[in-house]
Amino acid sequence: MTGDNKFVVVANRLPVDRTKSGWRASPGGLVAALAPVLRAHSGCWVGWPGEPDTHVPPFDFDGISLHPVGLSGWDFENFYEGFSNSSLWPLYHDLIVTPQYSPEWWDAYKSVNKKFADAVAAVAAEGATVWVQDYQLQLVPGLLKEARPDLTIGFFLHIPFPSPDLFKQLPWREDITRGLEGCDLIGFQRDEDEQNFRALVGASGPRTGAFPISIDPGAIHPGAREDVDKLREKLGNPRTLMLGVDRLDYTKGILQRLLAIENLLEQGELDDVAVVQLATPSRERIEHYKQTRREVEEAVGRINGRFGSVGTPVIHYIHRPVPKGELGTYYAAADVMLVTPFKDGMNLVAKEYVSCHPDGDGALVLSEFAGAAVELNQAYLCNPFDLESIQQAILGAVDGDPEAMRAMHKRVTEYDVDRWAQTFLEAL
Ligand code: ADQ
């Protein structure tokens, strides 16, 4: 049985969230980039609607047809929280925490990947193009190639691909590489990720390439002058406003940047500074995420206790998602943006910040281990494992370099998420 969709995107999540009044587009550049392609090619999106144990029939949203894949509570715990986020996520981010490997999680990963592959096979037209997204669905290409050899299959990995030495820990390593080899083209964020994969599979096998993802500059606007002024006033009009914006994830190095700031305050090298740390709750049932939250919140409390005063803390910490509109005000207001992940596929926050600074003001402190450092190499680069290195980058950034910022702005606005999707699909 085949469907009539000539272009199918398949991702763990559908690009919508359910609210009390119906479905709402979830924030994210991927859907913005792919929506025009989907509309132009009578395409559809296959993914999980975000609620376990619920049957959601196919529906149209904003001109795109959505095909929900149902997951049970057991699937969610074992496929998503288990194999995807407690085995693959730490393994692919170079063991920042120790991955756990469980045969039960692996069984769930296999069975959920099969569900996704079956759903795609049922909706894809003869000879259709299918674009599979990310680490949760690495078996889908192989399953699809077997069931539907007529399809052209692309895959994009949003997170890093680890070195072969690390990857070989995975008890099911060959199943994963075989699954990916069902593709016609695999896209990675960086050359290094591509080379790591190539070192495992050799010169034969599917085509691969590096396609650094980017942002939709139209979706994130620098805040208006008066909103920026109001925000700075609320923060006590500090001379230097520093900002961190992350999912609360142990890969993002939030604690390390707070410790670097604490050292600088202690040494008297920073004065009249306010720091805003926005941290979206993420994967909250997993123990390592709970621990990261405890450590970050303890550091915030300690630093404010040591260096803040009543009514003017040093660190302003928000553990809630912030609407995209407000995010633009924070980005525009910040003199120094702190992006210090231990490892990150790309890091779109760095690009969003740069896109909100068209005039050369502001400065970006960026980890060498973020994929974004390849393109944004004029940032104040640091090694997040070395507090002294973060401290030096922060001190450099306090003075800023307008030429560097303007050059990075040009890169981010020219090579946006549309270009990313087009480049990949043309190569496919
Ligand atoms: P993430 O790990 O989620 O993505 P990132 O690329 O930084 O990381 O994207 C996060 C997105 O969430 C950004 O668009 C940002 O604006 C938003 N966000 C973060 N914190 C927020 C907050 N407190 N409030 C509101 N919005 C917030 C994965 C990979 C990355 C890769 C992307 C895309 O881990 O390396 O860049 O996919 O491929």
Can you describe what's shown?
This protein has helices at 29-40, 73-92, 103-123, 140-147, 164-167, 173-180, 191-201, 225-234, 254-266, 287-307, 324-333, 348-355, 387-399, 402-414, 417-427, and strands at 5-13, 16-19, 22-25, 43-48, 59-61, 64-68, 124-133, 152-156, 185-188, 207-210, 240-247, 273-280, 315-318, 336-339, 363-367, 380-382. By secondary structure, it is of the alpha/beta class. The protein has an eight-stranded mixed beta sheet with strand order 5-6-4-1-7-8-9-10, with helices on both faces. The structure holds adenosine-5'-diphosphate-glucose. Adenosine-5'-diphosphate-glucose binds at residues 158-159, 213, 245-247, 278-280, 321-322, 327, 344-349, 352.
Strand elements, count: 16
Largest sheet: 8 strands, mixed
**CATH class categorisation of the largest domain:** Alpha Beta
Mean pLDDT: 95
Q: What proportion strand?
A: 15-25%
Number of helices: 15
Q: Could you give me the name of the CATH homologous superfamily of the largest domain?
A: Glycogen Phosphorylase B
Order of the strands making up the biggest sheet: 5-6-4-1-7-8-9-10
What is the radius of gyration computed over CA atoms, rounded to a whole number of angstroms? 22 Å
Shape: globular
Q: Structural class given helices, strands, pairing?
A: alpha/beta
Ends distance: 24 Å
The fold-level CATH name of the largest domain is Rossmann fold
Helix content: 40-55%
> Please, how many domains?
2
